[in-house]
Amino acid sequence: MKIVTLILVVSVMLSLSFSAAIKAADTGDKGNVGVTCDARQLQPCLAAITGGGQPSGECCAKLTEQQSCLCGFAKNPAFAQYISSPNSRKVLAACGVAYPTC
C-alpha cells in the first residue's frame, strides 16, 4: 500500500510540475524542428521511471517525440532527478533513445 501511495504522490507532484511547456529551438535534428517541449507528454513513462518496469509503447513513442527536449528537462530542477536516474537510463535504452549529453 505504501508503494501505491508513493507512486500516486509522485504522479500528482509531477503533474503539477509539468504545467509549463517550452518551445524547443532547432537542435539540428530535422525531424524534431518545432517540437513543443512539454514534460507532461512523458507521463506514460512515469511508472517505468519511478518503478523500474518496462516502458510501454506509448512511453517510447513520447520519448522519441520529445528527445530533442531531454537536455532542457535535465537542466530543470523539477525534472533533473527523473532524467538522471538509473531507471530513466534503462527506459531510454529500452526505447532506443540516446541518453542526452548536455
TrEMBL record:
**Domain Bifunctional inhibitor/plant lipid transfer protein/seed storage helical: where?**
39-102
Please name the InterPro entries in this protein's record. Answer: Bifun_inhib/LTP/seed_sf, Bifunc_inhib/LTP/seed_store, nsLTP2
Signal peptide residues on this chain, from the entry's feature table: 1-19
Query: Can you tell which superkingdom this protein's organism belongs to?
Result: Eukaryota
Which UniProt keywords are given for this protein, alphabetically ordered?
Lipid-binding, Signal, Transport
Instruction: Output the Gene3D superfamilies linked to this UniProt entry.
Output: Plant lipid-transfer and hydrophobic proteins
Name the chain's protein.
Non-specific lipid-transfer protein 2-like
Native species: Camelina sativa (False flax)
